Amino acid sequence: MDYKIAVPSYKRAETIQNKTFKVFEHHKIDPSLVSVFVADKDEESIYKEALKDHPYGQSIIVGVPTIGAQRNFIERYYPEGTQLMMFDDDVQEVQRKNGNKLEPIDSLEDEIIIPGFTHCKENGSHVFGIYAASNHYFMKDRVYTKLCYIIASMFGVVVEHDETLQRITNHGEDYEYSMRQYRKHGIVTRFDNYTVKSNYYKEDGGLQEYRTKEYVRESIEKIAELFPDLCDMYIRKTTGFAELRLKDKVGIEKTDGASLQGFF
Q1: pLDDT tens, 176-203?
Q2: Going by C-beta distance under 8 Å and a sequence separation of 6 or more, which residues neighbour residue 77?
């Protein structure tokens, strides 16, 4: 199967080597498939020096600042129809649910990439992902195709150059994108028995460089205004952060624990 891999990264030239690149190494991913997208020329210089001897760091592409705009840039960079995997730069492990525990998968291609794009081709979806919370209790042995949250830490997309799919937010941009895909195609695909291990927003670099409660709320309010038929905004009492609940035509989706809690 033909596909490409894009890794947007910001101020994490060391993290990407210690985490996501090690995942690629473990699963024997062809380095020629991988490109790292950075925010500007200064970041390009830093990454080129740090990754000059790394097999997965040979394709470094200057995109644009902020993660939402960067993901838009990445999708426009590749030709329409490209089967594109996007990974965050801090993925530690890809896991599967096995009864009452999580275990590392055997093959990234055979368990995630090939089945994901195959399901998309068969059911008309243009995006697929995995369960957001690394918690076997909430995960299920199913492929879910109703409106749901496709977390951006690892997902696949069949590239379309369509302005209606362009993200306008940063915090919650993966919620926004899930709804944009659902509104256009009436379907998204999520493997609820797979997830990733990652320290979301808990290390240097990435979104927390400019994350505040006010910034988060502004983004979440904007998404809720864009998709009043598909989501509701609320403030989680335990954190004070604005979050979203997704809903489809039959009402609010049971998110099974995969809310924005822990991701903002």
Answers
A1: 999 999 999 999 999 999 999 987 555 5
A2: 6, 37, 61, 63
